[in-house]
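User: quick one, fold this
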Amino acid sequence: GIRCLIWQPTVVGLNDGHLIAITKFAIVGVCFRLFGIVLYRRYGAKLNKPYLFLCLALIIIGSTEFNASIAATFTMFMIPWCFNILAAGWYYPLRETFLNESIGERFRASMLSFDSMLENFSAMIACLVIYLSLGSIPLQMYWVFAGASLFVSAAIFLAVHVKLERKQYLDTGPRLVSR
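Assistant:
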């Protein structure tokens, strides 16, 4: 949603050649998204520590957001953006699986609903901020902010998960495999 708002003023002024390029990119994007899903099914579902794969996806997506702030041409924007779509292809299914396995059965429905509501509320606030500040802040700054927020999210997610993992280890002790 936010990306559509940011690119809307640019897309409106494009000629037919650019619109054909965007259509081709959309088709390539679908292929990259499917490839990301295949990567998840092949490797992500088998990981012992899926949170590392989630953090990697956030870092890749954040890096492409930073690239968008400095991309001088349409091609310089679109080629790295394919990796954004690829990472999103494994991020969302892995995230849903991770959330479903991490939350107890008693609270799962409430927490997943809260997660969905928080995501939509955040997008709504971001759209409002973009609308209110559109004339005073260059569009590139929105991309920088988006990339930075994804890097911070990855760092917080990793730190919290490692802390919880250590606490669980301290509470239960090392797990021995019985034969």
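User: anything notable?
Assistant: Residues 29 and 120 are 23 Å apart (CA to CA).
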